[in-house]
């Protein structure tokens, strides 16, 4: 989907997905509960906007959730909007 690498960093009860380009970072953070990852924040710095980085970060979380059998609750307004736009991602939303 993207021409940049997205890394998943875990720590404690959550973590983040991050893309680093030219010294700048775009990130999406999440907190984990038993079977649900709550996406609570997405940020793309101005110099990286227009490259679909935010969408790519959410897409990566969707793909990881599918592989692991987890669900995603997007409370971040950007992530929630992406889920509304992509009906094919709704399989990872909680019941």
TrEMBL record:
Q: Which CDD domains does this UniProt record tie to the protein?
A: NAT_SF
What residue stretches are annotated with the N-acetyltransferase domain? 9-94
**Known Pfam families for this protein?**
Acetyltransf_CG (PF14542)
User: PROSITE patterns, per this entry?
Assistant: GNAT_YJDJ
Q: What is this protein called?
A: N-acetyltransferase domain-containing protein
What is the native source organism of this protein?
A: Paracoccus chinensis
Q: Taxonomy-wise, where does this protein's organism fall, top ranks first?
A: Bacteria, Pseudomonadati, Pseudomonadota, Alphaproteobacteria, Rhodobacterales
């Amino acid at each position: 989907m993207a021409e940049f690498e997205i890394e998943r960093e875990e720590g404690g009860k959550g973590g983040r997905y991050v893309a680093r380009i030219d010294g700048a970072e775009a990130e999406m953070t999440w907190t984990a509960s038993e079977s649900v990852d709550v996406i609570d924040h997405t940020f793309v710095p101005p110099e990286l906007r227009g490259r679909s980085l935010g969408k790519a970060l959410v897409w990566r979380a969707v793909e990881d959730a599918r592989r692991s059998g987890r669900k995603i609750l997007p409370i971040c307004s950007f992530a929630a909007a992406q889920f509304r736009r992509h009906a094919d991602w709704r399989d990872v939303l909680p019941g």
